[in-house]
Amino acid sequence: MSFTDLFSYNNLTHAFAGATGSVVGMSTFYPLDTVRTRLQTDDDLKAVGPFRVMKQLSEEEGVGTLYRGLTPVLTSLYCSNFVYFYAFNGMKTIANLNGIKPSISRDLIFGYLSGCINALVTTPLWVVNTRLKLQCTQKTSTSDGTQPKKLDGLFHGLCTISKEEGMPALWNGVQTSFILSGNPAIHFMVYESLKRFFFKTKLAKGQKTNLSSFESFLLGGFAKAVATVITYPLQLIQCRQRANKKIGSNVSIYEVVQDVLRQAGISGLYKGMESKLYQTVLTAALMFLTYEKILSFIYWMFRVQKKQNSEFKG
What we know:
This protein is mostly helical. Helices cover 75% and strands 0% of the residues. It is globular. The model has no long low-confidence stretch (mean pLDDT 83).
């Protein structure tokens, strides 16, 4: 195996398709993500269903609040999924070249390692995004009780947080992110397993093995629903760590759990899960639909180009 195998057009194509698909999905269902973030971090906001919360926020703060921070989120999401898809498919390339056959355990391990790489690289972007979304709540305060400086975007947020709170603050919640890497690992394990099952079934029937639009949408959504339900309490904890309501303190997982249990009991660990399921399942379903279609289109273009080159040489 050489570096050219790892840094290949195939891995780049998967990374581009996955990142683009994630942006399409998030752009479509972004208001649900805003509701999820607010429910996970705001103890005063009642969990009355995502659409009622959406209506409440629109009436109290304006419709624009549902799209606050959209541009930096899409930028971060593109970078995040590009890293994840490239790492995941790069590992698959290495495994295939070394004769390691596809399996559930292989998908789970590669998914988890890719998630850890992604978390290490992109956590600062998500810390800034969480702060940007929560600026309107005006509940964030420094240790001396003053309001922190307003963040005007992704780059400004990175510079401001690192300057005022130190570089480690940009990785608040990264420990939880490493644990939560199990979420995309479970997601990809379920998706890849179901995809192989569909391919085998179609092959046995003599059908084309490409996934239809409906199948891509269904498999992507179902796989994400399984991963979300299993890991949701950790996602809530991570969101609160990133929000960092008392600037200057890196709150541990144990402290966040204690605070949530004291405020709302066990049910507090699942506050906002309905909104999260709506958002993450629909976003993931649309993302994988777009991902598969982009892959099919690019590979079709490659085949056409290869055929034209062959005809030209002939």
